Amino acid sequence: MQVATRFTVAQECGLPSKVKQEYFKASEEDIIVNTVSPTGYPMRMLRSTPAIGSGIRPNCEAYGYLLDGSGKCAYIDAYNTQLALHPDGKNISVIDKTCLCTHMRNYNCWTCGALTHRLKDTTHKLADGSYIEPSAEHIFKDYQFSVNNTVRLPDADPAP
Q1: Mean pLDDT throughout 79-103?
Q2: Which pTM was predicted?
Q3: CA-CA distance, 53 to 34, in Å (whole number)?
Q4: Phi, psi of 57, deg, nearest 5
Q5: In the chain, how many domains are there?
Q6: Which residues are CB-contacts of 73 (< 8 A; sequence separation ≥ 6)?
Q7: What integer is the mean pLDDT of 113-131?
Q8: Top-confidence residue, 79 or 97
Q9: Quick one: 131 and 153 in the same domain?
Q10: Structural contact between residues 136 and 11, judged by C-beta atoms closer than 8 angstroms
Q11: Tens of pLDDT, residues 2-44
Q12: Residues 53 and 66 both lie in one domain
């Protein structure tokens, strides 16, 4: 199962809150398939993403983010090689190992899943029109414990 978009709006995600709110506010019509994608492959994106029509292409495949014909990912292979050289996890060179999410964020490329418009159903709307960003733990537990297509909402009061 792929649940990346759901975690995109988590408190722990590195996206700016302003962008997370764009995901919450999206309607079904705001989700488009961009055939002139910055990655070179068609992908769903929020209609408001600055990358659409920008002519900028992050060139993701050059970083090895895409799986090869054998299902291997050059990013993971490179990271594991560094980890083998530095088992304590220190001094790992990550210059050429920027994760796909960070890479796409740097190019203002707001990708999304087909059901992004339902994110607003997974949280509470505040008086100012913004939405509470749930924690990653909350999202995980929702997937773990929800039954009969119910969504367990986060607490109505956001943590300070």
Answers
A1: 70
A2: 0.69
A3: 9
A4: -125, 115
A5: 2
A6: 64, 65, 66, 67
A7: 91
A8: 79
A9: yes
A10: yes
A11: 567 888 899 988 788 999 999 999 999 999 888 766 566 678 8
A12: no
Residues 6+ apart with CB under 8 A from 38: 51, 54, 56, 57, 58, 60, 104, 107, 109
Residues in contact with 117: Cβ distance below 8 Å, sequence separation at least 6, in sequence order: 26, 27, 28, 30, 31
Beta strands in the chain (DSSP E): 31-34, 43-46
Query: Are 97 and 114 within one domain?
Result: no
Pair 53, 118 in one domain = yes
- For 114, the token pair is 């087909």
Whether 26 and 93 map to the same domain: the answer is no
Same domain? For 51 and 126 the reply is: yes
3-state secondary structure of 72: coil
Side chain identity at residue 43, one-letter code: M
Residues 92 and 130 in one domain: no
What's the pLDDT at 130?
96
Domain range enclosing 40: 1-58+108-160
Together in a domain, 21 and 48 = yes
